[in-house]
Amino acid sequence: MIRKPAGVAARGAIRPPGQTMRRPITTPPAFDAAASPSPPPRYLTRHYWWAYVHPRAVRIFERQWLVNLILWGNFRKLRDAALDALGQTLPGRSLQVACVYGDLSRHLLERARRASGRLDVVDVLPVQLANLARKLPDRQGLTLHHADAAALPMADGAFDRALLFFLLHEQPPEVRRQTLREAWRVVRPGGRLVLLDYARPAWWNPLRYLWLPVLERLEPFAADLWTHDITALLPAEWAGARLERRRYFGGLYQLLTVER
């Protein structure tokens, strides 16, 4: 599960899973649970309970200023780059793979509505779907799915485009490859996939030397995107696809646009 930009949690701010919390965030009553996975993947509960899984984590991180801080002031720039890579308007069906802190989904839905399109958002965690449902109370043109990104319940070629926004660095290699296979499968031939995630910064960027130890401590799978070119991580099904890549903030972030 991109899910969303990850960062440094305040020490002691969140209790480990299993302790009772007040004001729990509940699952939204209106979402597709036909393929609901249970329980969540172990790597999520083990490594990301502090950022995504625990209800208090959601209350802490659902602040756009905090997301922007984690991304070194680049959230809006990266959000808009991903949106523009998908298109100014989004007719047909668009898929967002994993919920995102901040207002990305609202902007996606607005672009879909301009063209009478639809937006589907899939996430493996009900708490994340509940959070998104609160942010987008008007569900017109929106469908939420409780499902694993590595086992999407959608039919082949069901979507015109798909977005993975800061998701891949949070997944173990085998889950990442399966997520990419699934995204490829559900986008129609001629459709578009947009990936935005970390990359290895340029040699002159101080974060090349300072940020990786932080990521390695908090996000054990992120180093893959520093030590390997993302194209080397793509599954065989993507061979021959037309790729376009852009880098941001001294190479720390990369946007990959793939024509199916």
Secondary structure blueprint with pairings:
Blueprint (H helix, E strand, L loop, with lengths): L41 H6 L1 H5 L1 H7 L2 H7 L4 H12 L6 E5 L6 H11 L3 E6 L2 H10 L6 E5 L12 E7 L7 H14 E12 L8 H12 L5 H4 L14 E7 L4 E7 L1
Parallel strand pairs: 1-2, 1-4, 2-3, 4-5
Antiparallel strand pairs: 5-7, 6-7
Describe it.
This is Demethylmenaquinone methyltransferase. There is one protein chain. This protein is an alpha/beta fold and 260 residues long. The chain has one domain (42-259): Vaccinia Virus protein VP39 (Rossmann fold, 3-Layer(aba) Sandwich), CATH 3.40.50. The chain has ten helices and seven strands. A seven-stranded mixed sheet has the order 3-2-1-4-5-7-6. Strand 2 (118-123), helix 7 (126-135) and strand 3 form a beta-alpha-beta unit. 42% of the residues are buried.
Q: Uncertain runs with pLDDT below 50, 5 residues or more?
A: 4-29
Number of helices: 10
CATH superfamily: Vaccinia Virus protein VP39
Question: Which sequence of SSEs, written as H and E, runs from N to C?
Answer: HHHHHEHEHEEHEHHEE
CATH-defined architecture: 3-Layer(aba) Sandwich
Sheet of most strands: 7 strands, mixed
Strands in their spatial order, largest beta sheet: 3-2-1-4-5-7-6
Structural class by secondary-structure content: alpha/beta
Strand content: 15-25%
CATH fold field value: Rossmann fold
Count of beta strands: 7
In one word, what is the shape? globular
CATH C-level class is Alpha Beta
Range of helix content: 25-40%
Radius of gyration: 17 Å
**Domain count:** 1
